[in-house]
Amino acid sequence: MNAEMNTDLLDQIERELLSWDGVSKEMRATDVSNFDVTIYYIGRRQIGHIHHDGVADVLFPKAVQRELIAAGKADPHRGGFDGVVSYAIRDETDVPGAVELFRMSYDRAMYRRAAA
Questions:
Q1: Which of 28, 50, 97, 109 is most deeply buried (CB count within 10 A of its CB)?
Q2: How do the domains of the chain map onto residue ranges?
Q3: Distance, CA of 43 to CA of 109 (rounded, Å)
Q4: Contacts of 31 (CB under 8 A, 6+ apart)
Q5: Tens digits of per-residue pLDDT, 6-45?
Q6: Torsions phi, psi of 2, nearest 5?
Q7: DSSP 62-104
Q8: 7-115 maps to which CATH number?
Q9: Are 1 and 13 in contact (CB under 8 A)?
Q10: pLDDT tens-digit readout, 51-92
């Protein structure tokens, strides 16, 4: 995959995520010259982020993480973090899968927020 993902794909996903109630974003850089990750939040709670190399990392409880990986809907986090799945966004056909994972994380966060 190219070092930078197709920005049209990122824009499609971002438009969808930011249309959901309460979702905001923050861009971060690993160096001063390049923003390389966009993080999506509900309030202060992160639901996931997309690296600009085209990999989405989405947060879930460990049991859900294992289920998603076993079902082939996501990969283990490429850095090995528990409770996070990775999902490669290579082309247009990957957009719905990425949105589905973010939606699952969003729904869990909204449920927890309502229960608090």
A1: 50
A2: 7-115
A3: 10
A4: none
A5: 788 999 999 999 999 999 999 887 665 566 899 999 999 9
A6: -65, 160
A7: HHHHHHHHHTTSSEE-TT--TTEEEEE--SGGGHHHHHHHHHH
A8: 3.90.1150
A9: no
A10: 988 999 999 999 999 999 999 999 999 989 999 999 999 999
